[in-house]
Write a structure and sequence with these properties.
The chain has 390 residues and is an alpha+beta fold. It is 51% helix and 14% strand. It has a four-stranded mixed β-sheet with strand order 1-4-5-8. Strands 2-3-7-6 form a four-stranded antiparallel β-sheet, with no helix packed on it. The longest helix has 37 residues. The relative contact order is 0.12.
Length: 390
């Protein structure tokens, strides 16, 4: 081991309970996730047993009410849990973030009866969720979605295809945005659809550059019938629910990005202090030292940015602009840091024998999911200068 091996992140946590929680997460990550991460990612294997363990440990419902099995933790704490998980395996960290996103609509906009009936199983009963907004022809322009839900007595019949769905085909429930009225954002409603509903199916998972262990697939709704009691919120409120969920979800992506970047930095520091050239560790060369310094600075700045946005959210203050900034900065930083990590490892960084190349491939998708970074810039600009074309 090098003399100056990377240490765990020194976190500023608000309570002793939060510190105990991080210790639990680190123990699970090192004992249950890290040993198999590289092998299972290479094989494209989803670690469902890990998510079962996380559910049993109370880690799949951290930001939600304890009344329904949640952890009732502030986002400031929940996001740092995501970062810890993503640093070990992004499939797990991002999977927890997506499950939290899928649970958001019911936890925030559902009726008391809906919450009592469904949330305990969603938050602590071993279930896994997926969030269905994007479609083959409507990604960034989500308000133009075409999946329809038509009223038939006390039921709704859903027909259409959703695309780029994390956990597509393996989820136990899907939070689905479907058109129930006029074109545009005001004609969309939200539904909670069980995975075993007749007519629901998933295509084969996409073949991806990274995150091969996390299935991403189209989900087809061929006349899927759900009762009106599974509609979340009011008719026509679905798009507002979706955007509200994404504000929080973007913070999850930001935290995951910093986790991946931290893992890449740790790998680069370890390699640079062990690898010797010209009679000394390559970490002694100023050009490389400056690279490490820049990488660490970008990570610390990103962590501070997502935590500042989380504290606004926890205080009940507007945070959408800051969430977009955090998602933008943290994911761009992760791409730069992981690219530099590969460069520091040289030829070894380009091989699968070291994890740097996996971190680089995984970082790329974080600039795309839950609103591309071009969309984040549009969101930020609207907060600064108002809507376009006024």
């Amino acid at each position: 081991m090098p003399d100056r091996a990377p240490q765990p992140v020194d976190r500023q946590l608000p309570t002793d309970e939060a510190r105990d929680l991080i210790s639990l997460v680190r123990d699970i990550a090192q004992r249950e996730i890290a040993p198999k991460a590289a092998e299972e990612e290479d094989a494209g294997r989803f670690p469902r047993e890990v998510f079962t363990l996380l559910s049993e440990s109370g880690l799949l419902g951290l930001p939600y009410d304890s009344e329904y099995g949640g952890g009732e933790q502030p986002y400031e704490v929940y996001l740092q849990v995501l970062e810890e998980l993503a640093a070990v395996r992004l499939t797990v960290g991002l999977g927890v973030s997506v499950h939290t996103l899928a649970s958001y609509a019911l936890a925030t906009y559902g009726s008391k009866q809906q919450q009592v009936e469904h949330l305990p199983a969603m938050l602590g009963g071993g279930l896994l969720g997926a969030y269905c907004l994007s479609e083959p022809a409507s990604g960034s322009d989500a308000a133009s979605l075409r999946t329809k839900a038509v009223r038939d007595g006390e039921d709704w019949v859903i027909t259409g295809t959703k695309a780029w769905i994390t956990h597509g085909g393996i989820a136990d429930f899907y939070t689905v945005m479907a058109r129930t009225g006029e074109d545009g954002p005001r004609g969309i409603s939200a539904f909670l659809v069980p995975a075993d509903a007749p007519g629901l199916s998933a295509a084969a998972p996409e073949k991806k550059m990274g995150m091969k262990g996390s299935p991403t697939a189209q989900v087809h709704f061929d006349g899927v019938r759900v009762g009106d009691e599974r509609r979340i919120g009011e008719e026509g409120q679905g798009f507002a629910i979706a955007l509200s969920a994404l504000d929080s979800g973007r913070l999850g992506i930001a935290a995951c990005a910093i986790g991946v970047a931290q893992a890449a930095l740790d790998e680069a520091v370890t390699y640079a202090t062990e690898r010797r050239q010209f009679g000394k560790p390559i970490a002694d060369f100023q050009g490389l030292r400056f690279m490490l310094a820049d990488m660490a600075t970008q990570i610390e700045a990103g962590r501070a940015l997502y935590l500042a946005a989380a504290r606004l959210r926890d205080a009940g203050r507007p945070f959408a602009k800051q969430a977009a900034m955090a998602k933008l900065h943290c994911t761009d930083a992760a791409m730069k840091v992981t690219t530099d990590a590969v460069q520091i490892l040289g030829g070894y960084g380009y091989t699968a024998d070291f994890p740097a190349e996996r971190y680089m491939r995984e970082a790329k998708v974080l600039q795309i999911v839950e609103g591309t970074n071009q969309i984040q810039r549009m969101v930020i600009a609207r907060h600064l200068a108002g809507p376009e074309g006024r």
